[in-house]
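Per your request, structure below.
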């Protein structure tokens, strides 16, 4: 198997080998649900695509191996197309990637940022998210340098307790089941409704 054109469901699969499939050759998302055996085989397949010591892989190597489009600015920080913590059926921490370290080098996400179920705690140097930002059930507690979210911001079930440096949210702001209150966003320009 070399390519999956859209998403793939392996929840009842007995697959034992993903062959030479690379994570960036998947056109959609991968779902394993409760199929831990296939999920672990997939994680090992992807892990083999990285340098031996993934913990020392550079941000550039990680982004390239995961097929995330990027540019670098004059300061060497990364501008990426989009971000989804569990797009490939696992969290990046399952591979041994330290997302806290990764986000010290990422300045901007042009599209959507889905941090749902992620295991890292800080957005580090990230200043800009052009699309929607989903923090649902993430471990993130610190928005770092984040100032701008162009779309919706979903803080449902998040551990974030302060909007930090955030100045702008372009659409709806969701605050269900979180310590955050609408009054916490008094100094943030929110273009949509707050629920």
């Amino acid at each position: 198997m070399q390519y999956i054109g859209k998403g793939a469901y392996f929840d009842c699969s007995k697959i034992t080998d993903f062959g030479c499939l690379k994570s960036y050759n998947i056109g959609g998302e991968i779902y394993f649900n409760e199929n831990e055996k296939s999920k672990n085989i997939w994680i090992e397949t992807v892990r083999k695509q990285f340098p031996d010591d993934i913990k020392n892989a550079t941000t550039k190597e990680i982004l390239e191996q995961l097929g995330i489009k990027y540019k670098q600015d004059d300061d060497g920080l990364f501008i990426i197309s989009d971000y989804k913590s569990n797009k490939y059926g696992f969290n990046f921490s399952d591979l041994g990637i330290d997302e806290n370290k990764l986000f010290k080098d990422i300045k901007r996400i042009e599209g959507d940022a889905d941090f749902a179920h992620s295991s890292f705690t800080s957005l580090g140097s990230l200043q800009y998210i052009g699309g929607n930002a989903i923090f649902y059930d993430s471990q993130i507690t610190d928005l770092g340098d984040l100032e701008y979210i162009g779309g919706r911001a979903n803080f449902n079930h998040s551990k974030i307790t302060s909007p930090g440096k955030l100045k702008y949210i372009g659409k709806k702001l969701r605050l269900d089941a979180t310590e955050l209150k609408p009054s916490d966003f008094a100094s943030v320009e929110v273009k949509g409704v707050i629920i």
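Residues 75 and 105 are 10 Å apart (CA to CA).

Regards,
D.
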